[in-house]
C-alpha cells in the first residue's frame, strides 16, 4: 500500500517548508489530490517528481555567445574582456571573411560588428550574416554621424546601432538582450 502524506509531512519528506509546498501544489508542479479539505501526496509520486527534476547545474542557462568582428586588435580584446566580465563567451574575428568562417561552425547569440569606413562592405557583411544565421541578433558599432549613410542596413533585418567607442554599460545592455 502506498503511504499518503499530508502537506506538513510531505514538506518534511522533501526538505522544504509547508508554505513552499503549498505553492508548488497550487501551481500543479507537485502531484497531489485534495481529499475533503486537505491535500494528500503520495511518497512514490514525490520520488518520481524529484527524479524528473534536472540537477541544478543542468538547469543553469548557458553563457551567451558573442561573435566580435573588429579590425583593431586592441578594441577586439577590450570588447572580449567586457563580454567575459559579464559572463559571455566571445569569439573574435579580425575580418568579414574570418567572421563568416566562424558562422559556418555555429550560430552565436549576437554578432557585434565594427563597421568599417566602407559602408558598402558593411551592407554586404550584414547580408551574408543574415543568410548564414537568420536568427542572430546583430549589433553594429558605428562612428558618430554615420548612422544616416548606413540606412540600407535596415533592409537586411533589425540591427542594434551602437556609437563607438563601445563602453562597458553598452556591453552590459547588449548581453542583457540575449
Give an overview of the whole structure:
The protein is α/β, with parallel strands linked by helices. The chain folds into two domains: 54 residues, Multidrug-efflux Transporter Regulator, Chain: A, Domain 2; 113 residues, Response regulator (Rossmann fold, 3-Layer(aba) Sandwich). The chain contains eight helices and eight strands. The strands form two sheets. It has a five-stranded parallel sheet. Strands 1-3-2 form a three-stranded antiparallel sheet. Strand 4, helix 5 and strand 5 form a beta-alpha-beta unit. Helix 1 packs across helix 2. The relative contact order is 0.11. The model has no long low-confidence stretch (mean pLDDT 82).
C-alpha Rg, in Å? 25 Å
Mean pLDDT: 82
Task: Estimate what percentage of residues fall within beta strands.
Answer: 15-25%
Note poorly predicted spans: none
Order of helices and strands: EHHEEHHEHEHEHEEH
> How far do the termini sit from each other?
50 Å
Biggest sheet, strands in spatial order?
A: 5-4-6-7-8
CATH topology descriptor of the largest domain: Rossmann fold
- CATH superfamily of the largest domain, please? Response regulator
Summarize the structure.
It contains eight helices and eight strands; from the N terminus they run E-H-H-E-E-H-H-E-H-E-H-E-H-E-E-H.
Q: How would the blueprint of this fold be written?
A:
Elements: E1 4-5, H1 7-14, H2 18-26, E2 33-35, E3 38-42, H3 43-52, H4 56-59, E4 65-69, H5 73-85, E5 89-93, H6 96-103, E6 110-114, H7 119-132, E7 137-142, E8 160-163, H8 168-177
Parallel strand pairs: 4-5, 4-6, 6-7, 7-8
Antiparallel strand pairs: 1-3, 2-3
Helix pairs in contact: 1-2
Amino acid at each position: 500500500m502506498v503511504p499518503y502524506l499530508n502537506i506538513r509531512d510531505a514538506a518534511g519528506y522533501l526538505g522544504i517548508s509547508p508554505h513552499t509546498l503549498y505553492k508548488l501544489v497550487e501551481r500543479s508542479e507537485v502531484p497531489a489530490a485534495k481529499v475533503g479539505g486537505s491535500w494528500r501526496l503520495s511518497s512514490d509520486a514525490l520520488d518520481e517528481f524529484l527524479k524528473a527534476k534536472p540537477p541544478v547545474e543542468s538547469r543553469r542557462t548557458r553563457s551567451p555567445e558573442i561573435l566580435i568582428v573588429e579590425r583593431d586588435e586592441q578594441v577586439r580584446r577590450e570588447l572580449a574582456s567586457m563580454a567575459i566580465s559579464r559572463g559571455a563567451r566571445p569569439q573574435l574575428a579580425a575580418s568579414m571573411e574570418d567572421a563568416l568562417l566562424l558562422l559556418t561552425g555555429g550560430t552565436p547569440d549576437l554578432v557585434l560588428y565594427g563597421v568599417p569606413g566602407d559602408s558598402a562592405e558593411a551592407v554586404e557583411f550584414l547580408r551574408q550574416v543574415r543568410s548564414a544565421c537568420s536568427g542572430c541578433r546583430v549589433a553594429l558599432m558605428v562612428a558618430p554621424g554615420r548612422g544616416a549613410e548606413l540606412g540600407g542596413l535596415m533592409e537586411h533585418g533589425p540591427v542594434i546601432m551602437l556609437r563607438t567607442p563601445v563602453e562597458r554599460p553598452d556591453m552590459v545592455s547588449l548581453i542583457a538582450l540575449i
